[in-house]
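Progress report, Aim 2. The chain analyzed during this reporting quarter is listed below.
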Amino acid sequence: MRMEQVLSRENLLEALHRVERNKGSHGVDGMSVSELRPYMMEHWHEICTSLLEGTYKPQPVRRIEIPKPNGGKRKLGIPTVIDRFIQQALNQALTPIFDPGFSENSFGFRPNKQAHQAVRKAKSYIKEGYRWVIDMDLEKFFDHVNHDKLMHLIGKKIRDGRILHLIREFLKAGIMENGLVTSNLEGTPQGGPLSPLLSNIMLDPLDKELEIRNLRFVRYSDDCNIFVKSRKAGKRVMENMTNFLEKELSLKVNREKTALDRPWKRDYLGFSFTYHKEPKIRIARKSIQKMKQRIREHTSRSHSISMEERIKRLNQYLMGWCGYFSLADTPTVFKNLDKWIRRRLRMMIWKQWKKPKTKIKKLIQLGVQPYKAYEWGNSRKSYWRISKSPILHQTLGNSYWSSQGLKSLYRKYGEKRHLFD
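Predicted structure tokens for the chain:
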């Protein structure tokens, strides 16, 4: 492949549409996605010339941190929109060359591949009797990718020196944090369109090694699970793969987090499994805890918004969450979460009413007998306890929240499972 193919009109237009569609934050130059098209129309000739001549210099990425589900922070490097556009064009041209050679057990950031397929594959291994799992953890993988090893792997299929030079320039572009730019001697910062493809190229030798050894595995980016039939075999494989990753790929394995355990005691991509011979996919406890925390935020009185707007935001989050986790084989979880969410909303309303006089008035308006309204309006029971009381179940029950537009996780789960089946 040559640089001229990367810069073809068709490839560039598709890259531009994707960058505009994905939106995203600005880079170190402050340029927004909406400014990209006018800028390119005015300056494309000089940018194109520098790319063809191999003199293009990417700008440093802007460092931001986002919270990780298990605590801590994940560091992202946000390229400028111009660099995102060029990376997207590169990604589109390189993917058809590299992707067909990747393992069928690699599911992350690939065309027609998704996390659900990886989870289903893991379930099939457990069903076949591979009931021990090695959960490999690469320590800060994206920060420790060896540039020379990565470029060597890319160079096996790409001969155009301009493309290789451009990719290396992106790798070492540097990172701006707190106004200071530091050089980037290793790693491929997460945040750019090219990074996922580069990570798959870097870890493809691991996949090939696992296949040569006839091992059952699933990999989603740097999340790799290897399934074996015994603890003894697991110890041997874990030691061998750790040596391979550190010696052959110069990657660092986190020995504290890498574990050999039963699959139902580990999480994978937000899911886990039951211990039965016919295992079921279930939602990991951490995923439910994280979801409940988000619901607490959405139902907090600190957000002074109307109930209509609150339910609109809540529905948006719930339907997205259910769209992913409806792969689980545990419908009761969704039914119980519906109950818990309605209880949270009842508690929030009870808190908003504040004074006993207001509570009595509101309960009577909802059809409660005055003597009952007086009894509960003056109750000193906790907010959470009252939210489960018969009086609020009667007045603010399922039909009430349906009339307010609140969507049901359990109902959505049923619709999604029908599509899966």
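The two ends are 42 Å apart (CA to CA). Residues 143 and 249 are 14 Å apart (CA to CA). These observations will guide the mutagenesis work planned for the next reporting period.
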